[in-house]
Amino acid sequence: MNYVPKIDRRSFVVGTAAAGAGLTLGMTLPFGAAEAQGTPELNAWVVVKPDDTVVIRFARSEMGQGALTGLCQLIAEELECDWAKVSWEYVNPAWNVARKRVWGNFNSTGSNAIRQSHEYVRQGGAAARQMLIQAAADAWKVPAAECTAANSVVTHAGTGRKASYGSVALAAAKIEPPDPKSMKLKDPKSWKIAGKPLARLDTRDKLTGRQKYSIDTQLPGMLNAAIKACPVRGGKVVSFDAAKVKGMKGVKDVFNVGGTAVAVVADTWWHAKTALDALPVVWDEGPGAKVSSATIAAFLKEGLEAQTQLVGNKTGDIGAALAGAAKKVEAVYAYPYQNHACMEPLNATARYTADKCEVWTSTQNAESVLAAAVEASGLPFSKCDVTVVTAGGGFGRRGRTDYVTQAVQIAKQMPGVPIKLLWSREEDMTQGTYHPITQCKLTASLDADNNVTGLNMRISGQSILAGIAPDRLTNGRDPAVFQGLNAGGAEGALGYDIPNVFIDHAMRNTHLTPGFWRGVNNNQNAIYLECFIDEVAHAAGVDPLEFRRKMMKKHPKHLAVLNAAAERAEWGKPLPKGVFRGIAQQMGYGSYVAAVSEVSVSSDGLLTIHRIVGATDSGHIANPLLVERQIAGSFVFGLSAILYGGCTVKDGRIEQTNFDSYNSMRMAAMPKVETVLVPSGGFWGGVGEPTIFVAAPSVLNAIFAATGKRIRSFPLKDQGLRTA
Amino acid sequence: MISLTINGQTHTIDVEPDTPLLWAIRENVGLTGTKYGCGVAQCGSCTVHIDGVAVRSCSMPVSAAVGTKITTIEGIAENNVLTKVQQAWLANEVPQCGYCQSGMIMAVTALLKDKPKPTDAEINDTITNICRCGTFQQVRAAIHAAANA
Predict the structure, then answer these.
(1) Is A64 within 8 Å of B36 when comparing Cβ atoms?
(2) What is the spatial distance between Cα A485 and Cα A490, in angstroms, rounded to a whole number?
(3) How large is the average pLDDT for residues B23-36?
(4) Which of A249, A394, A667 sits opposite B16 (nearest CB)?
(5) Which residues of A touch B138 (CB under 8 A)?
(6) Which residues of A touch B98 (CB under 8 A)?
């Protein structure tokens, strides 16, 4: 089975409602700030103003990953415009509904913002270029074919006449737009803007405090809300004593929010939070209150031996391979819950009247926010509006809309008043949609020559799709649990030529809500597979790099990336005394990644990660500077999780409530990261997540090399290891 | 009423003395460049300068800041000219989401005032802010670049 991210159910709802809403709104409204200022668009993606400024429309989400700059580069490349004159604006999802989804998908999860939209955004840029050329040609009364465009100037070859884009923009906007699909796109080899390490478009304001995040939303008459949901997921509000806090300074009101949470609305958030902390609430915690980490672990352990539910990868005859093995290796691994912990806690501002519901928020899918506003407000699409604000991190958490629903539910109880709902860090930590918890039992068979003849993996644990997108299950089963372990496909194929493979899943769901957490199921699958392969190599007495190479002949792209990392890291060359290497590789979100880590472990458990080499083949690259930062950042994200992360459960509650108990990497533990980009062309893979897969296993394998100790459950802080 | 001197301007605000300085700055004064990340002095997103010293404003009562010179991220660039730290951040393309960077820049600015040429060990000891995007490699490069500017 190959896991391909599907459109969110909410987006689908938006899509099917789009045509009707378009008719309702009509097509004459300006769609964007630039147009509202009097300049008509060339098409959905491009506005050129008379002063030569180019406004590029960005329909995905910017949460630090750089998709904004990368997509603008791709459009600007085909538009042949002056990069220095490029500005940008977010697309309001309500415009998309009104215009039959001309901007396509808004989703920014699954490392897909660029790889899913690169073609149609470039076609948009190319179509706009053609219109500008045509307008100049018309003015000169020459054939458009005799004109060329470069650097925001149209030139007529025969006469040498030149026209700036701005000077022909208004005329160009009146030309019948060509079919974007008919546009011939440039060969990436001739790119001048795309593929280059250009500076981001959104850096400067992030240095001065001017950048507005959702949490900074300010509206006239706005009030602030603090919220507390039942600490046990699935529980309900029984009662609360609003009178106890209504007299507190600044407090305006106290509300039941959706039956599962209580919120205090006040003049300031600090007043709201102070009152909320003092508010007596009686909860019906429900059956989840009986659950603990120990009960979940036992539940998953039972799943390791239970009947097969879903087979993800079946090749050859695993039974025969195991029966005929000269040597067998077996291990059980476990991976804990993780919280996204975006630096900007979840928040949304909403204003509700009987005629309109408006939302201002940061999100990874603005269409989902619109759909949530429709659902929570009870108003039709045509009466809902979403203003997208830059996100202080997303990591998958902002693909959910629970916080938007709550904001609208509160605003609905105070019509006409804008309400900014902000989750405390404690709420963010304890009301997460957690990286799912799983265990995995692995068995490998070796023949007398130490060749791997069979690989058996049983994954037991929670399904994300069952928890938050049950309509995407296949006959009640979740094929996404096999990310990176699939027999083939362009998304996440197993990279080893093992003749007999059997990988299956036993779904074991808990009361906690799972979620897509940057890297998703690849994270634990890569740890399971790549640490175990290392165990098998050790049992075979073969160097872990050589052992892998021998099994990768039919997977040349996986192998090439592995080799690229190994070569840069000078695998096999002596290291300083006490420093040891570990290696790992994986494919996911269409990209191939590998890493070599160098670590030392002191006798009293101080782990130092000195250096990591990360190699990536993402096919094409929109901007290598952005990719390098995604790779370095992915090491931080993946390593934070295994070093210090892990959410535990007691009495049904998540025990980690802030960064003091759910720590994250800081400067002192940061290794030196070297990136090796080996784009082989011909495909577009994602880069926001894949490196996370190899971060943990490469370090864990190096820890084994250093200590001789295999660690199979996490975080490492609970296994006697610490960092500086 | 409490009087605060922020970025050279005096603000008189109606706020309880035990309100964290962070929320007084964000909600009562209206300067939102200083960020809320944890509320327990763990992450450093809320870092400001009190008389030139880096302080995590989420855990300092506003009353303790009375009579001091408070500087926020909005106040370090004079006449809109970026400081050498901000310029190094720009040249090294440090921010990803950028949410933690106000605090990061304030912490680094204070460090460089104290130690104009910090070693990596001094950086590790002093800059303990959390960045979930993982910009530390660029932060380190930019600190050295600013120190050598």
Answers:
(1) no
(2) 12
(3) 98
(4) A249
(5) 629, 632
(6) 64, 202-203, 205-206, 211, 390, 392
Note whether A505 and A477 are within 8 A (CB): yes
Q: Which two tokens stand for residue A641?
A: 């999780």
Q: What tens digit of pLDDT does each residue of A475-501 get?
A: 999 999 999 999 999 999 999 999 999
* Domains, in order of start, for chain B: 2-73 (3.10.20.30), 78-147 (1.10.150.120)
What CA–CA distance (Å, rounded) separates A672 from A635? Answer: 10
Q: Do A467 and A509 contact (CB within 8 A), yes or no?
A: yes
Distance, CA of A403 to CA of A384 (rounded, Å)? 17
pLDDT in tens, A232-253: 999 999 999 999 999 999 999 9
Q: Which helix (H) or strand (E) holds A707?
A: helix A690-707
Whether A14 has a pLDDT exceeding 60, the answer reads no
Rounded CA Rg of chain A? 27
- B101-114 and B84-91 helices cross at what angle (nearest 10)? 130
A209 touches chain B (CB under 8 A): yes
Q: Which residue of A has its CA nearest to B88?
A: A207
What does the pLDDT average to over B47-51? 98
Q: Considering only the beta carbons, identify the residue of A205, A249, A667 that sits closest to B140.
A: A667
A424 CA: distance to closest CA in chain B (Å): 8
Report the CATH fold assignment for A9-196. Aldehyde Oxidoreductase; domain 4 (3.30.365)
Cα–Cα distance measured from residue A532 to residue A544, given in angstroms and rounded to the nearest whole number: 11
How far the first Cα of chain B sits from its last, in Å, is 43
**Which residues of B fall within a CB distance of 8 Å from A216?**
32
Chain A residues touching B137 at Cβ < 8 A: 632, 670, 672-673
In Å, what is the CA distance from A652 to each residue of A109, A503, B18? Answer: 29, 31, 33
Tens-digit pLDDT profile for residues B63-96: 999 999 999 999 999 888 999 999 999 999 999 9
In chain A, the percentage of residues whose pLDDT exceeds 70 is: 95
| Nearest CB to A670; choose among B39, B96, B137 | B137
* Nearest-angstrom CA–CA distance, A35 and A311: 52
Residue A662: Cβ-neighbour burial (10 angstroms; 0-12, 13-18, 19+) = buried
My answer on whether omega of the bond before A624 falls inside 30° of 0, hence cis, is no
Using the structure block, give the residue that is written with the tokens 């939303």: A217
Angstrom distance (rounded) from CA A480 to CA A436: 12
CB pairs under 8 A between A and B: 176
Sheet strands (E) in A574-635: 580-588, 591-601, 607-617
pLDDT digits (tens, 9 = 90+) for A633-664: 999 999 999 999 999 999 999 999 999 999 99
| Residue of chain A whose Cα is closest to the Cα of B134 | A633
CATH 3.30.365.10 boundaries in chain A: 9-196, 306-338+434-719
**Which residues are paired to A236 by β-bridges?**
A284
Q: Which residues of A touch B16 (CB under 8 A)?
A: 249
Q: Which CATH architecture has domain A306-338+434-719?
A: 2-Layer Sandwich (3.30)
A338 contacts in B (CB within 8 Å)? none
Instruction: Say whether A270 and B27 touch across the interface (CB within 8 A).
Output: yes
pLDDT classification of A30: cutoffs 50, 70, 90: low
CA–CA distances in Å: residue A199 to residues A192, A479, A622, A628 = 14, 39, 12, 13
Distances (CA, A) of B94 to A210, A211, A633: 16, 15, 11
Q: What is the ipTM of this complex?
A: 0.98
B117 burial type by CB count under 10 A (0-12 exposed, 13-18 middle, 19+ buried): exposed
**Rounded-to-5 percentages of helix, strand, coil across chain B:** 40, 15, 40
